[in-house]
Amino acid sequence: MSLTGSLTSTTRRRKFTDRFVTVLVTCAFLLALVPLISLTATVVANGVARFDVEFFNSSMRNITGEGGGALHAMIGTLLITLAATIISVPLGLMTSIYLVEYGRGRLAQIITFLVDVMTGIPSIVAGLFAYAAFVLILGPGVRMGIVGAVSLAVLMIPVVVRSSEEMLRLVPDELREASYALGVPKWRTILKIVLPTAMAGITTGVMLAIARVIGETAPLLITAGFTASMNYNLFADRMQSLPVYVYTQFANQGNPAFAFIERAWAAALLLIIIVMALNLIARLIAKKFSPSSR
Fold first, then answer.
1. With contact defined as beta carbons under 8 Å apart, do 82 and 69 qualify?
2. CA–CA gap between residue 124 and residue 220 (Å, rounded)
3. Where are the domains of the chain?
4. What is the DSSP secondary structure assignment for residue 50, as one 8-state letter?
5. Of 22, 60, 74, 78, whose CB count within 10 A is highest?
6. 53-293: CATH number
7. Distance, first Cα to last Cα, the chain
8. Is the preceding peptide bond at 256 cis, omega within 30 degrees of 0?
9. If DSSP codes are grouped into helix, strand and coil, which group holds residue 278?
């Protein structure tokens, strides 16, 4: 066989392989879209019926049938998630700073290993941990919003650590060295140079961490419980959240049953919208404050 014929055969084989892989990837992408589109369409179709004013401005207090809303669950989700963010972001950020700027040797390896383990723990384990910790302090049967916030913080911390660590490592060493050459202490270099440079990526990671935990049901069912009334105090009594609201409406159907199902679908749709909004905000932050856009 001539050299030209060999090259032609090789070129055809490469083109065939390229087209085959392209078709395979496209089919896999379309196949992955089927359940996503089906899920979204189902939730929208069933949830939009109760997406009314009453759903957003009333709770389930004294409601046994139709009517009622999820205002108490929205407030609970907001307060619990906010408290979890306040707990997890400083801890996660300081841990990532230690691993990138100070961590050397066995301790840094142990912390990295523990963060990797925490990333993969089931959410129910985080709920059991938070519940057990507060039981030791306050006694059995404790159900409070702050306990739910601690359980969500346990899930958020490894996500914040990993995302912040990657962003801090992307900061060029030349910036650090230039600051050190001017006699700036390391802590001030981190505070004034490293963190502002990586802040867009860190903020994006925090938003994604919030989106990851805001739909958790199992840990909040154990730690915060559920209620039909408004509760603005994280440190007293049970507190409802949107994921638990969906569960309770579906699991404890009354008469008429369709009213409970409609409220569950509406709350599920609201959760999806919140998660989509958080992801969109994270992308906008990353795009606006990325170094390439400046």
1. no
2. 9
3. 3-50, 53-293
4. G
5. 60
6. 1.10.3720.10
7. 57
8. yes
9. helix
